[in-house]
Write a structure and sequence with these properties.
Blueprint (H helix, E strand, L loop, with lengths): L4 H4 L10 H12 L6 E6 L5 H14 L3 E6 L10 H16 L1 H13 L8 H18 L6 E6 L7 H14 L7 E8 L3 H10 L4 E5 L4 H19 L11 H12 L3 H12 L5 H10 L8 H12 L4 H16 L6 H8 L5 H5 L10 H7 L13 H19 L20 H8 L2 H14 L6 H25 L2 H16 L3
Helix pairs in contact: 4-5, 4-6, 5-6, 7-8, 9-10, 9-11, 10-11, 11-12, 11-13, 14-18, 18-20, 18-21, 20-21, 20-22, 21-22
């Protein structure tokens, strides 16, 4: 949920696009007499997250951004996500306000041993009460919290809990404390939010069929194609430049992600750009408002799909789609036992596709089940879980950093970080931190049961050593063991 390097690279709105909407959000955020929740909805790919990212950067530069929390499909831990949201909000506020920081510190230290009995009690103590105290003392500055793609926060029970948290608590906060929430139209979360906050929010629906949406996409396509055209001429028989822009804009049908993927596909190969552009504007099925057809065409032309490439694609993309964070190319190579550089060489053909949830949903859908790039979600998740245990079995051992005094506490070890970088690669750190989350994604199997049995009796203490050295013992140990016990069905 933090703003990772991958997230920081996400696009912002092109100047002159979404002008009215951005102005509405700015005016609402600066007001003190309007509802303090702004709910932005729309179909998949209509640019909700781009709008949120634009506002986040703008308010961040003005030091008015409390927190920017972005949810990505499959990248949240359903066991901790609600509490993580509350703590992230509280941390963002405490950084900017000493009164809030002091109150949160006092509350946290007094509840350190017992913790908070529920997320609502945690919200009350870490957010609501500190904000009221800051407002009472007149030291509270306007602050914007952004919850982007909230419908990707986790399964339905998590969505319900977060919707309840937003609906029941946020409207009680001081009026200068503002929440911008984005979610897909007609998602279950939108229905929950509408029921919870209908009378306490400003509501805006991004309508992809509106004139303004279509005009904004034409501006976007024209700008991006003009940038490409500075370095290369584009000529298609019987079509003017205006025709080309118009057909690409019409093909997007109000869906910004279609236009973005299409432009990326054209720009990704300098020598073949005119050919790729021609394929797009001349393929009626592709420009007939079908994001799935666009993905199909790009994947079909992106590789010769022999058995090796088919298996490699499925293995690499399973880690990209089902990983618990963005996994780097070298980490993927190590986890899959590939030569370093293999993933980097493989991905450029399709790299520009991977940042939108629509690709995830397409690759695992029934409509491409007979395609070379189809990913069986159950099989992919099972392989990752097995991979985690295999990596730990192969790599973990006593005194993994070969310390002269292995029983010293971490604070007494000179240059500990250098030992970590040398002896505990990031791929192994990922596995040690996330194996349990991958385990809970899959049903019981004898093979995984045997792997877990071996881990418990032979590797568990070495795993705890890695968690301790890397600073993740308190974060991962208890929750991982609870997940494993629940997976086994032990009460």
């Amino acid at each position: 949920m933090v703003t990772t390097e991958e997230e920081a690279d996400r696009p912002k709105c092109l100047d002159g696009t979404r002008f009215d909407l951005l102005q509405q959000i700015r005016s609402w955020a600066e007001s003190s007499d309007s509802p303090n929740i702004f709910l932005l909805t729309g179909d998949s790919g209509t640019g909700k997250s781009t709008v949120a990212r634009t506002i986040a950067e703008e308010f961040g530069q003005e030091e008015r951004l409390g927190s920017y929390i972005y949810f990505e499909k499959g990248k949240t831990d359903s066991n901790t996500v609600v509490n993580s949201v509350i703590k992230t909000i509280a941390y963002g506020l405490a950084k900017k306000n000493p009164v809030i920081a002091k109150k949160i510190y006092a509350t946290s230290t007094s509840n350190f041993e017992l913790g908070f009995p529920s997320s609502h009690v945690m919200f009350e103590n870490l957010v609501h009460i500190p904000l009221l105290e800051a407002a009472k003392k007149g030291v509270f500055k306007p602050s914007l919290i952004i919850l982007d793609a909230l419908d990707e926060c986790g399964p339905s029970h998590i969505q319900e809990e977060l919707a309840g948290l937003v609906g029941e608590n946020i409207s009680k906060l001081p009026s200068l404390f503002r929440f911008l929430v984005t979610t897909r139209q007609e998602s279950s979360l939108e229905s929950l939010l509408q029921a919870q906050i209908a009378s306490n929010c400003k509501y805006y629906k991004l309508d992809r069929t509106s004139t303004s949406s279509r005009n904004d996409i034409l501006k976007f396509v024209n700008h991006k194609m003009w940038e490409l055209g500075k370095f290369q001429d584009f000529e298609i028989e019987d079509k003017t430049w205006k025709d080309i822009i118009g057909e690409l804009g019409a093909g997007a049908d109000g869906v910004f992600v279609w236009a973005s993927v299409a432009i990326s596909y054209i720009s990704n190969s300098y020598l073949n750009r005119p050919e790729r552009l021609g394929a797009l504007v001349n393929d009626q099925a592709t420009t007939n408002k079908s994001l799935s057809r666009l993905y199909e065409m790009i994947l079909e032309k992106g590789s010769t799909w022999d058995d090796l490439k088919r298996e490699r694609f499925r293995s690499i993309f399973s880690l990209i789609l089902f990983g618990k964070r963005w996994i780097t190319n070298p980490e993927i190579d190590v986890l899959l036992g590939l030569e370093i550089g293999t993933t980097h060489a493989f991905l450029p053909r399709v790299k520009r596709l991977i940042h939108h949830v629509s690709l995830y949903e397409y690759l695992v859908s029934s409509e491409c089940v007979n395609k070379s790039w189809y990913i069986d979600e159950g099989e992919g998740r099972m392989k990752i879980s097995l991979c985690c245990f295999e990596q730990m079995r192969k790599s973990l051992h006593f005194n993994i950093c070969e310390l002269e005094k292995p029983f010293e506490i971490n604070e007494d070890v000179s240059q500990l970080q250098q030992y970590i970088e040398k002896d505990i690669p990031s791929s192994l750190q990922y596995v040690c931190q996330n194996w349990a989350l991958h385990l809970q994604d899959v049903p019981y199997s004898d093979e995984l049961h045997n792997q877990l049995h071996y881990f418990a009796y032979n590797t568990l203490l070495y795993w705890a050593e890695v968690l301790s050295i890397t600073g993740y013992l308190h974060v991962c140990l208890g929750s991982a063991l609870r997940i494993a016990i629940n997976w086994l069905g032990v009460s």
